[in-house]
Queue: 3 jobs
Job 1
Amino acid sequence: MQEKQIEIIRQKLTETHKKGAVHADVFIQAGTAHSAHYEDGRIEELSSSNTDGSGARIIAGDKTFYSHSPGTSVSGISQIISEAETSAFGTSALNTEKGRDPILTMEEHISPPEIGYMKELDHKIRKSSKYVRQAAFRYSISKRNVLIIRSDGICAEDTRTYCSFSEQIIAEKDGTLQTASERRCMAVPHPDFWSGSDPQKIAFAALDRALLMLEAKPCPAGKMKVLLAGEAGGTIIHEACGHGLEADIVEKDHSIYRDKIGEKVAHDSVTMIDDPTIPCLYGSYRFDDEGTPA
């Protein structure tokens, strides 16, 4: 059944090329998630959700057109492709698809996370320093089924599982408030998450940082060198370099990396590798969100 549904969508995407599209694709996702938020000595919020939705993208010339909707039925996906076509070309074929069955679902539900340790952890944090004014924890787990269908015939399907635990500490001394946080994220089922993570170590790392900031001298103003931590992928890869590697930026000749494939673009001391195949890391994947293998 799914193969027939996929072929209907793929055919509709392929037809966009006849109207002038350079590329078209559909991103479909169904998932389930739980989260717990502990603050001010009590459970502040517990939430659980099941979500699904689809997005259609058409690239025509140097412009991108996008439409999205909840649900994963063939009729719904065909409708958003038509809407993206209308935005891109002014007209679109009449959507005649009637299929209401979802092309993608999340049949397997994940159990809510254990949260009993949060009260004890809160007590340890507050007892360890008289300067602690607030401690907050957030634990989130999710599982998502993803399906990407492209106009060039490529279809990619993946299941992604994520866990994250974060801690925020507010400390005060002599009227000065400082806030520090620490976070641990992995792409593993939540029973395996704590085998490689210790909530107490995460929490006390945030506490140590907050207390250190209370004793820190004021930061000098003015122009200065910027240091990037090698393990901070979101900083060194995305913010420092990633935006310049985005296809639309390169296409519009706004990127310093344009026409630099195979050329040296950094100092000899800098070697940067963006590797999404490292097991269990939060940014790892089998396919990216455009269906390109890792």
Note: The chain has one domain: 2-219.
Job 2
Amino acid sequence: MERPKRILLVEDEFLVAAEMCEEVGDLGLEVVGPCGSVEEAVAAIRSTPIDAALVDINLGGIWAYPIADELIARDVPFAFTTGYDRASIQDRYAEVPRISKPVPARVLRSLIQTILESRPAGRKAATS
């Protein structure tokens, strides 16, 4: 039996993270995290096969770009969840899907489906 898809959740706000974890779990997906810091997220990426990720772009005043870079290096599809507008995000991440918080449940489900489908068929989850 195939393991459930693993979604890395990077979010530093407890209530938002709890709600998103519940939504991801309700989809039959496995949550990795939630990770509340850049260091914690990078460690998770390096130690756990990840199929996709949802990344809050600002973690307690620290930009999450090192997380994005780790995901890109491992060819893991992801999206930013943020309260910031597109103009606030560095140009090199312009193609990364972005969704404004708070994220309604149906929008979150659609976003997860979209980023999971962006992984070509047969491509395995990134491993360390």
Note: The beta strands are 6-10, 30-35, 52-56, 58-59, 62-63, 78-82, 98-100.
Job 3
Amino acid sequence: MADTPKKRFDYIIVGAGAAGCVLANRLSADPQRSVLLLEAGALSNHWRLRMPMAAMDRLSQSDKFCWKNWTEPEVQLDGRRIYVPSGRVIGGSSSINGMVHIRGNPAEFDRWAEQGCDGWSYQDVLPYFRKSETYHGPPSSLRGIDGPLSVFKTTPVNPLDVAFIDSGVEAGFGLSEDFNGASQEGFGSYDHSIDGGQRVSAATAYLYPAQGRSNLTVISNARAEKLRIESGRAVAVAYQQNSESHWAFAEAEVIVCAGAIWTPHLLQRSGIGHADRLREAGVESTHHLPAVGHGLQNHIDVVLQYACKEPVSILNMTKPWSQIAQGLR
């Protein structure tokens, strides 16, 4: 198995998604530290990744930019399998999603702190949320003004959007002027990470501005295969690129941020997980950690479809000719 041309780095980051791009930027800001960022997908600036309307062209179904994951048959869902896509491109899912910019619920962060996660209460993480964004909306002590992520408040203009929000208010629910503000409960419109008519992703906001740094190495189309564990610490990463296997070694840390599915997958392949399950799969256990690969939850998603009596739906905007027109605007 070959090594990378420069095989030793201070930090190795596995996964160039939302977390990996931020880490690569922040860690490489110290010119004395060398950083390697590994990404299984492409280093792509394809027009479909830049144009907001392309998100409606089912980027999450793309063989080129997406891991097309499926669950096992779900007993509670009458045996159906659920599609769980994730980004396989620089920027990860932030490069293919709907660009909705919304923070987690403050109560969830506070619950983490109550359960022993020091430094993770909402008041602890709020400064970092503010630091990350430039909010183009009404001034608020809860919003940032000079961060790398450009965030715009969307004004509903489609008659269906307006009718939906109005109906919620008329039914007695609250109106939320800012889902990232003081209250997330109610009807309203989302913020979006868009700037100058183009998508803002973790790649465009954090990684691309740092790519000129000589101490940052980005290797795309490089799928991490295994971690080398010595004395209870990850010290190296085996990865495959162009059908060739390589090793890269970390002097300080290996940071695994390959997403909710591929992070536990890599850990289990490296012998970190439930020892009995690993042995059943023919993997030697290096660290018995039963929680790895268990307990994955995702937010509920309910899709309602209706026949529209008036020609006001956004269906035509998903057509290729319309996307081109929107991109030229």
Note: The CA atoms of residues 232 and 287 lie 8 Å apart.
